[in-house]
Amino acid sequence: MKKGIVLVANLKSQWYAENLIYSIRKSGCSLPIRLIHFGGEAVNSKYILKEVEFLTIDDFPEEAKDFINNLRTVLTDCPMGFLYRFLAWFSDWDEFIYTDNDIVALMDWERLFDYSANHDLVHADEEYTTQGIYNYDDPQKIEEIFGMGSLSTAITAGHLLVKKNDKMIGDMNAAVAWFHQHPSIPKKHDQSLLHIAALLGNWKVLNLCKSPHNWLSSWSGDYKNSLDLIQAIQGVQKRPTDSFNGWYNTLSVESKNSYNLATGIAKPHISHLHYSGRGALGAEPIDELMFSSHTDNKRMRDYFKIEMADLLLISSFKKHIKRIKRHLNR
Questions:
Q1: Whole-angstrom Cα distance, residue 139 to residue 151?
Q2: 293 CB contacts (<8 Å, ≥6 apart)?
Q3: Which of 110, 276, 299, 74 shows the shortest CA–CA distance to 190?
Q4: Residue 309: per-residue pLDDT
Q5: Residue 173 CB-density burial (10 A; 0-12 exposed, 13-18 middle, 19+ buried)
Q6: CA distance readout (Å), 10 to 37, 42, 56, 86
């Protein structure tokens, strides 16, 4: 079966993508990588262009372009380039890993395909513990429509393995129609649509962070620094994160007992670290992994720039401008 890794990037996100690819290769993964142009100025890194097959939306069939345009009718909170991740479903690969750029690989991702035999989609994150607050304006309606526990099948769209089948595109188009029918329920971004498609199509989804695998959280915000991460990996037991504890405390006594019985002690695993929702990187100790591909001098220069931007309130100003633009574009 043909398989590989897909990412979407441009010049603005180039240093993220460069570090991502560096971490993938340093983890021992030799899978082919395809980089789809996000839009705007294209990447020009010699390292990236040596490692990837560079594609644009024009390299995909008209059917794929029509599909993206259909997604755009409801996913209005996403820049158009965000939607290009869905072009991977129209490639000649049978299976693929899609990854955001603000990610550091912590293992050979080819090993993830060992889990795809009986599943349509494999991921490793604790999005389910948030109970839909980042995907839906009215999360409770999801459980009313799709049944109890449906919010616990949430997917982080930033890193996932897909084993393609003929009905997935149809399920995602059905999710678009569902968004049109229920405009007040979902947030208008790709992650919520992917979840609805999985629910409508009854996809076989495996979350490696849930029992019985119990992999460690892949969100960088759950670790204070690299030492914290290393100690978590070396531990003999899954360490609950704040979001996990919040989710666990909502369970009934019976559900807690069932979960505890199903959760065994195993050697911790972690596939990657995702820096989503973090804004500007560099101010926190755990951020150092995002600078792994840099030389010593470049890393220190970048830290200096980041610190100066914080001291002069430039970072705060940029954050407010971004929020205003996002609000105006709704």
A1: 8
A2: 18, 19, 22, 23, 47
A3: 74
A4: 74
A5: middle
A6: 6, 5, 11, 17
CA-CA distance, 195 to 190, in Å (whole number)? 9
Q: What is the mean pLDDT of each run of 10 residues along the chain (330 residues)?
A: 96 96 97 98 97 98 98 94 97 97 97 96 95 94 95 95 96 98 96 97 96 92 91 71 72 64 61 83 84 88 79 67 62
Residue 147, sorted as left (phi over 0), alpha (psi -120 to 50) or beta, turns out to be: left
User: If you write DSSP's letter for every residue of 246-294 in order, what string do you get?
Assistant: HHHTTS-HHHHHHHHHH---------EEE-TT--S-SSSGGGGGGGTTS
Total residue count of the chain as it appears in this document? 330
d(CA 115, CA 214) in angstroms, rounded, equals 14
Say if CB 102 and CB 274 are below 8 A apart: yes
pLDDT of residue 303: 79
Rounded Cα distance between 179 and 167, Å, is 18
Tokens 């080819």 identify what position? 110
Q: Which two tokens stand for residue 213?
A: 């695998």
| C-alpha span between 79 and 38 (Å, rounded) | 9
Structure tokens at 108: 């050979």
The whole-angstrom separation of Cα 26 and Cα 126 is 25
Q: Give the dihedral sign, CA 64/65/70/71.
A: positive
Return the closest-CA partner of residue 270 out of 242, 295, 238, 301: 238
